[in-house]
Amino acid sequence: MSTDFFKGIEKATYEGPDSTNPMAFHHYNPEEVVMGKTMAEHLRFAIAYWHSFAWEGGDPFGGQTFERPWYPQDDMARAKLKADVAFEMFEILGAPFYCWHDADVRPEQGNFADNLSTLNEMVDYFGEKQEATGINLLWGTANMFSHRRWMSGASTNPDPDVFAFAAATVKSCMDATMKLGGQNYVLWGGREGYETLINTDMGAELDHMGRFLNMVVEYKHKIGFKGQILVEPKPQEPSKHQYDYDAATCFGFLQKYGLENEVKLNLEQGHAILAGHSFEHEIATATALGVLGSIDMNRNDYQSGWDTDQFPNNVPEVALCYYHILKDGGFTQGGTNFDAKIRRQSLDAEDLIAAHIGGMDVCARGLKAAAAMIEDGGLEDALKERYAGWETPEAKAMLDSDFDTITQRVLADNVNPAPRSGRQEILENYINRFV
């Protein structure tokens, strides 16, 4: 059914860089071909159900600022109205995908059986919406951090009954994701960590988390789910220290529990910043380790100490991220999910549309810049030149040698290397030609 929430807002279309229309795309042309694929096929945009429709405008220091016709989010009639509005927005933006947590789409019932019933009812409703619009589910996930039952974690909780509730919850969300044709299932451990070590058995918690993730993979194969299983790294907030700290930490965890060939990563820019990294670093780490699955595109306020989830607006940063993604072969089942929210002072429906239009334009500019750099080959040429010494037979043989043999060669040939410039500023200037 149609609603009046976006009344007067037309479907966003591509008008080009000279347009001054704030509700049109200036750079994102979904049909434009870049490196043999359309922008739509490269970027695979998804809208985050939680920030766009479930979030009420609160922050750590203040409560609700938004007034929406589906508030309070406590019954099924309003849950379905929220879904109606959501799919209207997906169509206005021309977004091919969306993502959800279970708690975003159904009201909290206080017990598992009723939560399952309302979730399944909403899944049927989403199925009708997807069939009518052609919009698909990029991924589903379970919210195991908001309700008080999760205050000490989910799979890492000291109470085995919470572990059991978490297992049943994830099973229900995997079932829902599969029924809706979701292409991935994500696990974000919002409270899988600790506040203090004085009451924490870290070894036990890591083992329980590892077993839980193995159960997820076992269930994936049992039901024949063809999507990717993704873990989303995050270093802190709300827990003091979370076990899924960053891409490298997650890979080590996957190796320890025998999951490195079964699970990939869903990386978020805001989480990279909280870990003290750049998004480029996290993506490059994941591609080097062969575990890049999908991304959440947003940004943090660099002056704030928490995950502010703002829409992306830094083209050079985004360009370098897509550079590594394209070099890795691009997305297969993953995509670009806007895990981003408008500011709590941005009250209007128009703000919600304009924010996504801007984010999609920034990603499009970044993608085109990344593709242009790849096609030009300047960065690759610089890397080849810098590492050219490793292509010689002598250097390759050294990696199969030993310290004694290498030392003899250093003495015999009087090896005394002179430092060479890394040419960082020249390469930074090169990148600026494209962005």
From TrEMBL:
Superkingdom as given in the UniProt entry: Bacteria
GO molecular function: magnesium ion binding; xylose isomerase activity
Catalytic reaction(s) noted: alpha-D-xylose = alpha-D-xylulofuranose
Cofactor(s) of this protein: Mg(2+)
E.C. number(s) listed in UniProt: 5.3.1.5
Subcellular localization: Cytoplasm
Binding of Mg(2+) 1, residues: 232, 268, 296, 339
Keywords tagged on the record: Carbohydrate metabolism, Cytoplasm, Isomerase, Magnesium, Metal-binding, Xylose metabolism
Major place of residence: cytoplasm
Cited InterPro entries: Xyl_isomerase-like_sf, Xylose_isom_bac, Xylose_isomerase
Entry note: cofactor: Binds 2 magnesium ions per subunit.
Similarity comment: family membership: Belongs to the xylose isomerase family.
NCBIfam families: PRK05474.1 (NF003998), xylose_isom_A (TIGR02630)
Binding partners and assembly: Homotetramer.
Protein name per UniProt: Xylose isomerase
UniProt source species: Actibacterium mucosum KCTC 23349
Gene: xylA
